[in-house]
Amino acid sequence: MNAGDDFEQALATARPRSWPRPTATSAVVLLTAALSAGVSVAVSLAIDNPPRPTAASPTSVTNLGAIWGRALTGAAPQHEPLSQAEHQANQVPRGAHVDRRADAISFTGSTATITFVANPPNGRDMAFRSAGLENPTIEVRRGTRVRIHFVNGDSDSAHGWLLLEPVVTAGNQAHGPRAFPGSYAPVLGDPTSAGQAAEWITFRATTSGTYRYECPVPGHAAMGMQGTFVVNS
Ligand SMILES: [Cu+2]
Predict the structure, then answer these.
(1) d(CA 67, CA 45)
(2) What pLDDT, in 10s, does the model give residues 115-154?
(3) Rg of the Cα trace of the chain?
(4) 128 alpha carbon to ligand 1 midpoint, in Å?
(5) pLDDT band with cut points at 50, 70 and 90 for residue 13
(6) Domain with 63 in it: what CATH number?
(7) Distance of CA 208 from the midpoint of ligand 1 (Å)
(8) Is residue 50 over pLDDT 60?
(9) How many angstroms separate the alpha carbon of residue 46 from the centre of ligand 1?
(10) CA of 100 to the centre of ligand 1 (A)
(11) Of 62, 58, 52, which is closest to residue 15 (Cα–Cα)?
């Protein structure tokens, strides 16, 4: 069992029983993904399974982040001071080329270490900040070992980072199986006296293509927490 499984279990345990069941829409999305993706979809099912708000409970979209944020407080593997997180959110990663006009960060080496800070106070709301950019497009070469340093820079909402293979688009959100084994930074909760919740994940970008990263908290990708991740051949 890896750290991600621990977090998904913690999330499942923390989930109030009265929340609405997944809607028919999410069932269709999951079924389509299952038909397209075989075994790996089981992983994304665990991510996509949190109940989605229904038309009868429109306030749930904004409340879920707050509820999960409180429920997961203190559960993160690491914490770091907000000032440190903000500093790292604006640092250019080692070996990276940053194109600010194109809002893109590219790597040509065999490793890429990227910090994403969700909703830092000085950034745009509902966005990931990296190298001083908002939701930048990331480009790596096929075979690159990618390390993601994910920090929840928010004060009152849960956030995560998930790299998906966009096999289905519903509304303005792409849904698919997790792009690569390990390409998921589990949802982190609110800060503690030790600082902002933080974690590291590592995966290998083994297949070229265009992928999507997003925050898996329901509603957050639609509100802007998403970007493009390109694996060049
Ligand atoms: Cu989020």
Answers:
(1) 21
(2) 999 999 887 899 999 999 999 999 999 999 999 999 999 9
(3) 17
(4) 9
(5) very low
(6) 2.60.40.420
(7) 26
(8) no
(9) 17
(10) 23
(11) 52
pLDDT at 220: 95
Count of structural domains, the chain: 1
Distance 229 CA to ligand 1 centre (A): 17
58 Cβ partners below 8 Å, 6+ apart?
none
233 CA from centroid of ligand 1 (Å): 30
Q: Distance from the CA of 225 to the center of ligand 1, in angstroms? A: 6
CA of 58 to the centre of ligand 1 (A): 17
Contacts of residue 180, defined as CB under 8 A and 6 or more positions apart, other chains included, come to 163, 203, 204, 205, 206, 207
Q: Which two tokens stand for residue 147?
A: 């390390």
Q: Give, in order, the Cα–Cα distances in Å from 138 to each of 38, 155, 169.
A: 27, 26, 20
**226 C-alpha vs ligand 1 centroid, how far in Å?**
9
Cut 0.85: pTM above it: no
Q: Give me the domain span that covers residue 70.
A: 3-232
Residues at Cβ < 5 Å from ligand 1 ion: 159, 215, 217, 220, 225
Residue of 93, 133, 99 lying closest to 112 (CA atoms)? 93
